[in-house]
Structure prediction request, 541 residues.
Amino acid sequence: MLLRCLSCIALSALAACQRPEPAVRVKTAASTPALVVPAPIGGTAAKGIAWLSASTDAEVDAAFAQARELHKPVLLYWGAEWCPPCNQLKATLFNRQDFIERTRAFVPVYIDGDRPGAQKLGARFKVRGYPTLVLLSPAGQEMTRLPGEVDAQQITQVLTLGLAMQRPVKAVLADARAGRALSANEWKLLAFYAWEADASDEQTQVLPPKELPATLRALAAACPPEQADAGTRLFLKAWAAGAVPPPDARARERFLAVLRSAEASRVHMDVLANHAEALAKAFAPPAGSRDRASLVDTFDAALAGLANDMTLSRADRVGASIARVQLARLGAAKGTPSGVPPALLSDIREQVTRLDRETTDGYERQAVITAAAYLLREAGAGPDSDALLKANLARSHSPYYLMSGLASNAKKRGDTAEALRWSEEAWRRSEGPATRLQWGASHVATLVELAPQDEQRIEAAVLQVLREAAGQPNAFYERSARSLQRVGSTLAAWQKTPGHADAMKRLQAELDALCAAVPEADAQRDTCRGILSVKPKLPSA
Prediction:
């Protein structure tokens, strides 16, 4: 599966008949409040996942009370309607009967990041990127985080492992680092833990980000030979994370063995595709050597096999093609337009045309079409990328994401006016409180980068973002807070150029008024005050 939120689209024409049914209220335990249960994603209420929709602490607490009463763990899903990897989960995982049946053993809770109060819950559970899947005990202890980018069947297997073990991955990691023996299932749990999602947060659940490369490398070395898949995955993850020192000849040969094996490449396809550039840089011999060219060719052949593997989802196949483009560009001479050989570009165009024709599920199109547009752009086929995005604007219930893609395309080709137009239109059309702040921050950054002299336009955009934040009760938690901090850091860079002092004073006054309205005891107040300062600290839930 693609890494979280690479691109996004949803088709109104298809989604109209595939969106969840209107929510209904049901009673939980007699002592707990009612919870909202949306119709399951990808099926009827009788056949789908019985999600409990939560956006407040009270609703989440009620879900955990139900979990304790039923002696079941909680499966927390953090996502958003516009997020393409989230829609990929809906199309390839949440509609699988084996996964649906597995969720009967959990209390499944869905937090939509655009629901009022959701970002505060994001801070509570330390989740940021969409999608994130977290398995928690009935008491609220985190057991493990599931990697949303792996194959749907693998996610189901990891979930089964977490259910069977009932042991926090943090404790398993502590045992491994202490040299204690682990079971086969414990090694698998470590190998398939969502390390990237965990390391993205300063308030990390398991391991400080700076310790990740060395720890993964040590785990890979300690993993018993009979646990080949787990050991190989930890090995690949370590080098993708930047393990040092550089790999020796033995490590390079181990990497090549994975690439030469269609079976091993398939098992670890998410690591190979999502981290192709980092892995190639780590394992490739010095530039210009015959061994380097051979390794890159072997890697490309493995990725080509994945791009044409019909057992993979369409989005995963696009991801493999994106990785092929990254490899091609690594070896391209400076000054070449894209570094992509004509034969590869021809394959990509053919692949995108076929996927556009074959992908009919609304959720799946949301992931596939924008990933394909990104692929075309990176391959140097900008006009084709534009055409694909524009052709889907009218069909999408989240056209603002496609418009952001059009803005990026225009910026890449040097068309400032079009980049600004699409960026502004994307923000104007964006929906949902957290999403609007995110798109507003992005537009402010685009304005400052492409039109720094347009003070009036920049000031007006920032004022609108701040005033929208003022109307949101939890604007200074998690993703929303980070969007506002992005505005602050953008303005900090902008004000270094002379002539903007008066505008900054007006914006600071607006922010001061916004912060004054936040109760003194609310942790959000300090975050608010720090928006125009350096690296303000986020509040905890």
Q: What stands out?
A: Residues 290-307 form the longest helix (18 residues).
